[in-house]
Structures are given as structure tokens and as C-alpha cells.
Amino acid sequence: MVLAGIGAGLAALAAGIGIGQIGGKAMEGIARQPEAASKIQTAMIIAAALIEGVALFAVVVALIAK
Predict the structure, then answer these.
(1) Mean pLDDT computed over every residue of the chain
(2) Inter-axis angle of helices 2-32 and 37-64, to 10 degrees?
(3) What residue ranges do the domains of the chain occupy?
(4) How far apart are CA 41 and CA 59, in angstroms?
(5) Which end of the chain is more exposed for a tag (fewer CB within 10 A), N or C?
């Protein structure tokens, strides 16, 4: 049971780090090329949604595998 909680926490932590990196790099890209902001934002949102989906799946698997 404790390991399931640790696994769920690690999945949430990793997702937070990944989404934070995506946001930071997107802001750098927009600062360098403001005319590409809409394309960068679209790609950032898609990538963040995919990471969030994988994190949710990992949390569910960690809690089921207790």
C-alpha cells in the first residue's frame, strides 16, 4: 500500500516536472520567434495533455497494483 502511494506520487512529480519544462521551453521559443507563438502554443498544449494522460494512467496503475 505504501509503495502504491510512492508510485503515484512519483508519477505526479514527474508529470509536473515535464509540464514545467515544456512551458519553460515554449516561453523561450516564443521569446525568440514571436511570430510562431500560435504553433508553439498548440504543440505545447498537446504535449502537456499527453504527459498528463500518461501520469494519470501511472497513478491508476500504481493504485490498482497495491
Answers:
(1) 92
(2) 180
(3) 1-14+36-66
(4) 27
(5) N
